[in-house]
Design brief:
The protein is of the alpha/beta class. The protein has eleven helices and eight strands. The protein has helices at 15-28, 44-48, 70-85, 91-104, 110-123, 137-175, 183-202, 218-234, 252-261, 279-283, 290-297, and strands spanning 3-8, 33-37, 57-60, 63-67, 129-133, 208-214, 238-246, 265-270. Helix 9 (252-261) links the parallel strand 7 and strand 8.
C-alpha cells in the first residue's frame, strides 16, 4: 500500500531540497519511492541537477522523480467531459457547454482539482512512498480544503441531475421505450466516489504523512503556526515540523516562536553555506532527517 508524504511551507523555506533528501533516504532504505513536484515553478530537476519531466525518471536505485504538468492534465480532463456531453446534449446546448468547459479548465483552482484526482492514482501506485514537493503554503491549503468543497458541489449537481433522470425515465416509460442511462450522472457519481476516496486517504495517518517545513524567521514561523491551526480545523494529521536552515535565534520574538513550535519539531537541519544540488550533496543531508525517515518507515 502506497504511503503519501507531503511537505508544506512558505515559499523559500527549502521544501524542494528536503523533499529530495527525504525521497533519497527512503530509497536508500530499500523503499521504492516516487518524488512528485506539484509546484508550477518546478525546481526538483534543478536540485537533483538532472532533467525531470512529466513521466517518472530513475534518479538512483528505488528512486524516481517527475514534474506534473497539471495544465495539460486538466485540458485532457476537459476533453473527456466534452466527449461525454456531446452524446447527450443538443448541438446548440453543447456548443455553449463546450465553451464553458474550455473556460473552466483554464480557470483558477483547476490545478488543485486536477492534483486531487492524481493523488488517488498515486495512492494506488506500485511505489511504497510518493513524496510531494508542494506549491507554497496558500496553494497547499486550498488543495487540502478542496475535497470537502467539491463534495458539497457534486452532491448538489447529482441531486439536480437525478431529478432530470427521473423525468427522463418517466417519459421513456410513457413512450414504451427503454431508458438507456445517463452518462453525465454516471460521470458525476464516479467523480464523487473519487473525491470521497481521496478524502479518506488524506485524513488517514496510516496512509498520509504531512510535514511542515519552517525556518527560524518571524514571518515564516507566524505562518507556520497559522497553518498548524488550519490543518487541525480540516482534519489533516500533522506528523511534525522540520526546522530547516537552522541557526540559534538571537531575536527574542523568534526564540519565543521556536519554543512555541518546539513540541512539534522532529528535525533540525542546520544552515549550510554551500548551495545544495545534485544527488551526492542531497544524500549528505540524511543524518539530520533520521527521525523523519524512522517515523515514515515504521509505517511500512
Amino acid at each position: 500500500m502506497t504511503h503519501l508524504v507531503f511537505l508544506g511551507g512558505k515559499g523559500g523555506v527549502g521544501k524542494t531540497t528536503l523533499s529530495c533528501a527525504i525521497s533519497y533516504q527512503l530509497a536508500a532504505r530499500g523503499r521504492r519511492t516516487l518524488l512528485v513536484s506539484t509546484d508550477p515553478a518546478h525546481s526538483v530537476g534543478d536540485v537533483l541537477d538532472m532533467e525531470i519531466g512529466p513521466a517518472p525518471r530513475r534518479v538512483v536505485d528505488n528512486l524516481y522523480a517527475m514534474e506534473l504538468d497539471l495544465e495539460k492534465i486538466a485540458l485532457e480532463k476537459g476533453s473527456r467531459v466534452k466527449n461525454i456531453a456531446v452524446k447527450i446534449l443538443p448541438p446548440d446546448v453543447y456548443e455553449a457547454f463546450s465553451k464553458y468547459v474550455d473556460a473552466v479548465v483554464k480557470g483558477p483552482g483547476v490545478d488543485e482539482y486536477t492534483l486531487i484526482e492524481k493523488i488517488l492514482d498515486f495512492a494506488k501506485s506500485e511505489f511504497n512512498y510518493v513524496v510531494f514537493d508542494t506549491a507554497p503554503i496558500g496553494h497547499t491549503f486550498k488543495l487540502l480544503q478542496l475535497p470537502d468543497l467539491l463534495k458539497s458541489w457534486l452532491d448538489m449537481l447529482r441531486r439536480q441531475r437525478l431529478s432530470y433522470v427521473k423525468l427522463s425515465k418517466n417519459v421513456a416509460k410513457l413512450k414504451g421505450e427503454d431508458y438507456r442511462g445517463d452518462p453525465l450522472l454516471e460521470f458525476l457519481e464516479e467523480t464523487a466516489k473519487k473525491i470521497d476516496a481521496v478524502t479518506q486517504v488524506l485524513k488517514n495517518p496510516s496512509r498520509t504523512s504531512f510535514f511542515l517545513v519552517a525556518n527560524p524567521e518571524k514571518v515564516v514561523l507566524d505562518e507556520t503556526l497559522r497553518f498548524i491551526e488550519r490543518l487541525t480545523e480540516i482534519g489533516i494529521p500533522l506528523k511534525g515540523v522540520i526546522m530547516n536552515k537552522y541557526r540559534h535565534p538571537t531575536n527574542p520574538k523568534v526564540r519565543r516562536l521556536v519554543e512555541k513550535i518546539s513540541p512539534l519539531i522532529i528535525a533540525y537541519v542546520h544552515e549550510d553555506e554551500d548551495e545544495i544540488y545534485g544527488v551526492e550533496k542531497i544524500s549528505k543531508i540524511g543524518g539530520a532527517l533520521t527521525s523523519v525517515i524512522n517515523r515514515l518507515t515504521t509505517l511500512s
